[in-house]
């Protein structure tokens, strides 16, 4: 029997697990990702004496920020689809400056 035939190829092993850290999925909080993020944050920053409760609070703050961004993006998409994102108005240069004559030297927007 040939010893070379029994040698298995080396498999590359990674110490880090592939995790889904998306905090928002389809407009809902991903609780599993929030918990994983908190645990990973606690382990990575353990030298700063970070407790799990502090890491969990920070993960929830990040999740709330992500939800706000998601809602803003959805409202922008909805407005763009409806055509109300940029209303069509006949604006002139004098609408943007405090001087009714449209004096560009002033440079202040007050309206």
TrEMBL record:
It comes from the Bacteria. This is Uncharacterized protein. It comes from Bacteroides salyersiae. The lineage of its organism: Bacteria, Pseudomonadati, Bacteroidota, Bacteroidia, Bacteroidales.
């Amino acid at each position: 029997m040939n010893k070379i035939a029994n040698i298995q190829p080396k498999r590359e092993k990674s110490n880090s697990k592939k995790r889904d850290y998306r905090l928002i999925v389809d407009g809902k909080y991903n609780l599993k990702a929030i918990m994983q993020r908190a645990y990973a944050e606690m382990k990575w920053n353990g030298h700063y004496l970070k407790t799990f409760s502090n890491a969990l609070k920070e993960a929830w703050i990040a999740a709330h920020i992500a939800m706000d961004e998601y809602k803003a993006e959805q409202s922008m998409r909805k407005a763009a689809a409806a055509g109300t994102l940029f209303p069509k108005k006949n604006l002139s240069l004098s609408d943007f400056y405090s001087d009714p004559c449209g004096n560009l030297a002033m440079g202040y927007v007050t309206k």
